[in-house]
TrEMBL record:
<feature type="domain" description="EAL">
    <location>
        <begin position="270"/>
        <end position="518"/>
    </location>
</feature>
<keyword id="KW-1003">Cell membrane</keyword>
<dbReference type="GO" id="GO:0071111">
    <property type="term" value="F:cyclic-guanylate-specific phosphodiesterase activity"/>
</dbReference>
<keyword id="KW-0973">c-di-GMP</keyword>
<protein>
    <recommendedName>
        <fullName>cyclic-guanylate-specific phosphodiesterase</fullName>
        <ecNumber>3.1.4.52</ecNumber>
    </recommendedName>
</protein>
<feature type="transmembrane region" description="Helical">
    <location>
        <begin position="21"/>
        <end position="43"/>
    </location>
</feature>
<keyword id="KW-0378">Hydrolase</keyword>
<keyword id="KW-0472">Membrane</keyword>
<dbReference type="InterPro" id="IPR050706">
    <property type="entry name" value="Cyclic-di-GMP_PDE-like"/>
</dbReference>
<dbReference type="Pfam" id="PF12792">
    <property type="entry name" value="CSS-motif"/>
</dbReference>
<dbReference type="GO" id="GO:0005886">
    <property type="term" value="C:plasma membrane"/>
</dbReference>
<keyword id="KW-1133">Transmembrane helix</keyword>
<dbReference type="InterPro" id="IPR001633">
    <property type="entry name" value="EAL_dom"/>
</dbReference>
<dbReference type="InterPro" id="IPR035919">
    <property type="entry name" value="EAL_sf"/>
</dbReference>
<feature type="transmembrane region" description="Helical">
    <location>
        <begin position="244"/>
        <end position="264"/>
    </location>
</feature>
<keyword id="KW-0812">Transmembrane</keyword>
<dbReference type="Pfam" id="PF00563">
    <property type="entry name" value="EAL"/>
</dbReference>
Length: 518
């Protein structure tokens, strides 16, 4: 009992002291996991976003390049070799069929002489050195600002004497809605840039020190000589929106704290004696022992009292009185009762069916007394094991908190089915003359307190007088707690027909040891 109280006190101390620490630990672990997993998710999403963006940009570049190349082929096919009126018309025809070709012109010795839109130029335009030239002799002129051609910034692609003019706005959709990473459309070697985001992604010095990863992608055209390069120098959970990061951090820390709170109480609950007993009952970890009852005159075994036992890993060997009370207070005593009766009948059915003079004593409680189906169900169980109902003794303890009327009705019904009724723990509870005179008990079991009283000089006469009075009721008398030879001799000399239960003859034994006795 002391050990159990110590465990209970320790549980309370842990609960009070450890709860805040558990919640804090859970919040920290949850937040760290969020950062770790969040980083992986952010890295993956960044790569996906950059790939999708690059694919769209590359598709747009291929579409524009297809039209430029098609314009060169068509000019060659139409044999545009000068700035004659006929050739200018041909140039206009080419421009009208191309969405992204803004204008197309004819060159003589690197000088623009005419264009589809302007006709013959009043001011001939000398082109600057090309920014880039491909192995196929395509020349590129980027970011040209010349009012002769357009008020906008233009790009020029030259092949031979034909120059295709495109507006910088053909990639406007990508410039107007810049992504949260840097990108560029450039030659395969990255040396010449056709379109880029101008490297606008920047963070403060403090954020730059936080854990991060560089995510880069490169997707190249399968038809042409350029690729889309993307780069996000600061990728990680700490570089998402600050408000979102704060909200997610708070959310996951709260979730972690709640989970820890639940785990803590579940762990604490798993250590309480109530919970462990409930699990023991559910998992059938209780077990039974049987204490033989002998006849004083012959010392032969005439019956057994079934005793339920529980040995727990945490609390050790727990007193039946304690765990029976716990099961009652927590409303699962019915499962304990069913376990005791089912197991006892199963374990002793062979011994009882082969020895009709033996009986089995079963302690009953308020649950059995107030269950209107208990007697009939027990009768069916007993008979199904080929045991006689007169071989089953139902012990009603004096300590029971039940009305006289209920006990009397229960006893009558039990005796009608052939069961034997015993008044247990006489001298320790609340039974009175009415119990002894009006309830038809077949047997009275005298508590160990009674035995001690017979050898107490101060109270000896009282207990002897009480014993003589009980003897005149013509009931069988069982002396419990007989542990010495002197106690046995006194009982034998008083009445050799008395029954004895105690360590002097036998302690409670497991069923295997009981079977050896027979």
């Amino acid at each position: 009992m002391l050990r159990i109280l110590v465990h209970l006190n320790e549980g309370i101390d842990v609960k009070i002291y450890g709860l805040k620490r558990w919640i804090l630990l859970g919040a920290v672990i949850s937040t760290l996991l969020f950062y770790l997993i969040g980083n992986v998710v952010v890295y993956k999403n960044a790569a996906v976003d950059q790939h999708e963006y690059s694919t769209k940009l590359l598709k747009q570049a291929d579409t524009v390049t297809d039209q430029i190349v098609s314009s060169f082929h068509l000019a060659d096919h139409l044999k545009v070799t000068s700035c004659s009126s006929d050739n200018i018309q041909k140039l206009r025809y080419i421009v009208s069929g191309s969405r992204y070709v803004e204008d197309i012109g004819f060159l003589e010795n690197g000088i623009m002489v005419c264009t589809a839109n302007q006709g013959l130029l009043k001011e001939k335009v000398q082109l600057p050195p090309p920014n880039f030239e491909t192995p196929k002799k395509y020349k590129f002129y980027s970011n040209i600002k010349n009012r002769v051609f357009s008020k906008e910034v233009i790009d020029i692609t030259q092949s031979g004497n034909i120059a295709v003019i495109t507006s910088d706005s053909i990639f406007g959709q990508f410039s107007y809605f810049p992504p949260n990473f840097n990108y560029k459309l450039a030659s395969s070697d990255g040396m010449h840039i056709f379109q880029d985001s101008k490297n606008t992604i920047e963070y403060s010095k403090f954020k730059s020190l936080l854990p991060h990863k560089i995510v880069s992608t490169k997707i190249c055209s399968t038809k042409y000589f350029y690729c889309v390069f993307t780069n996000k120098p600061f990728t990680g959970i700490f570089f998402i929106n600050d408000t979102l990061l704060a909200a997610l951090t708070l959310f996951f820390s709260v979730i972690g704290g709640l989970v820890s709170y639940i785990i803590f109480f579940k762990k604490h609950k798993s250590k309480t004696i109530e919970y462990r007993l409930m699990r023991a009952v559910k998992d059938k970890k209780l077990y039974l022992e049987y204490q033989p009852i002998v006849l004083s005159k012959t010392k032969e075994i005439i019956g057994f009292e079934v005793l339920v036992r529980w040995k727990d890993r945490v609390y050790g060997q727990v007193s039946p009185e304690l765990f029976i009370n716990i099961s009652e207070e927590n409303y699962f005593y019915d499962k304990v009762s069913v376990f005791i009766i089912d197991t006892a009948l199963q374990e002793l059915k062979d011994i009882l069916s082969e020895n009709r003079n033996l009986y089995l004593s079963i302690n009953i409680n308020n649950f059995e007394i107030n269950n209107p189906k208990f007697i009939s169900k027990l009768s069916q169980q007993v008979k199904s094991h080929h045991i006689l109902t007169r071989q089953i003794k139902l012990e009603i303890t004096e300590k029971i908190n039940e009305s006289f009327t209920c006990i009397n009705l229960f006893s009558k019904k039990a005796k009608e089915e052939g069961f034997v009724i015993s008044l247990d723990d006489f001298g320790t509870g609340v039974s009175n003359i009415q119990w002894l005179s009006e309830i038809d008990f077949d047997e009275i079991k005298l508590d160990k307190l009674f035995i001690n009283g017979l050898f107490d000089d101060k109270n000896k006469l009282f207990f002897i007088s009480l014993l003589n009075a009980i003897s005149k009721l013509n009931k069988k008398i069982v002396f419990e707690g007989v542990e010495s030879e002197d106690e046995y001799k006194y009982i034998y000399e008083h009445n050799s027909s008395n029954l004895i239960q105690g360590w002097y003859f036998y302690k409670s034994l497991p069923v295997a040891e009981i079977k050896k006795l027979f």
